[in-house]
Amino acid sequence: MEKSALTSSEIGSLWAEYINGTATNIINKYMFSIIEDKAIKELFNIAIKTFGQQKNEIGNFFVKEGFPVPIGFNETDLYLGKQKLFSDAFCLNYLHIMTIHGTLGHNTALCISVRKDLRTFYDSCSTAGNKMYHKTIELLLEKGLFQRDPLYYSYEHPTFISSKDFSDGFLGKGRMLAATEIVSLSLNLKKSIMAKTLSIAFSQVAESKEVRKFLTESEKTADGQIKALAKILQADNLPVPKSLETEVTTSTDSPFSDKLMLFHMGFLFQAAQNYHGAGLASAMRTDLVATYEKTILQNLLVTKNWFDLMVKNKWLEQPPLAPNRNEIAKKN
């Protein structure tokens, strides 16, 4: 039976997978080159080989459908042999967080895929992502680097909400954080800590003054969001994930192109919107709702500035567009 053409959603998911994947892969290759710990280095080796296979499969999908293979990022964006910018511990944390992003992306792409060969491809991507997630968790635990979420003490019987004050988080009479709220709160904090740390590292080595300024402002935005979320945890006497700034060296020798660093920060702030949105949807306390709403608006401003700077430098690759019927009609 003849295969049906890929839908616009399927093409769009493949395009995003290729662009985001090639960007992360370049950073993984650099980290692989500087990591000294053998166990961490091996995980990066697996990640690089896995994406290499996925990249080829995505390229084949585009070729068979008659679409050009995206440019994405390649070795021209990587400057090997530069001074070490990150510690081994940070590299492992980075791989863990990016694996979470990748797994979510694969599962989302699977949910909008109809054609069997594409579903099979995303199944394999999800399987590989799940395996890497387990590996990064195990290694972080083994090395004492994994930061567990706050622990709650068990209680005997289920209870029901009995007061409207359950949603009050401003006037001091509201209840303690619910376990369902900690899910997004903790994950958003860890991701913001990662974004802040990368902003600091990239701003040290960026060549362009405009890019450096954007990265510095991104660091301030992420720092403000970390403080806002941490304040909510601390008010309930709950632990806050530790920062990672000290895992960045003082190197000013850039291992990446400005294009790659700027794109990657934009991706992180865009991807964060999914997690902030999930946090907002699960929040049942007014202070949490207000914090997430403010964070989402801040991220929109960051991504707007990012978009303008990427376009100005002609660094933003255009995804496949719907046909312009009016322009086609004019040619007839």
Description of the molecule:
With 332 residues, the protein is mainly α. The chain contains nine helices and no strands. It has helices at 8-34, 38-65, 88-111, 116-142, 179-205, 209-235, 258-282, 286-312, 325-330.
List the helices and strands and how they pair.
Blueprint: H1 8-34, H2 38-65, H3 88-111, H4 116-142, H5 179-205, H6 209-235, H7 258-282, H8 286-312, H9 325-330
Count of strand segments: 0
- Order of helix and strand elements from N to C terminus: HHHHHHHHH
Q: Count of helical segments?
A: 9
Percent strand:
under 5%
The Cα radius of gyration reads 22 Å
Average per-residue pLDDT, rounded, comes to 92
Biggest β-sheet strands, sense, barrel: none
Instruction: Show unreliable segments.
Output: none
Question: Kindly, what is the distance between the CA atoms of the first and last residues, rounded to a whole number of angstroms?
Answer: 35 Å
Helical proportion, percent range: 55-70%
Structural class designation = mainly alpha
Shape descriptor reads globular
Keywords:
332 residues
Brief summary of the model shown:
It is built from nine helices and no strands.
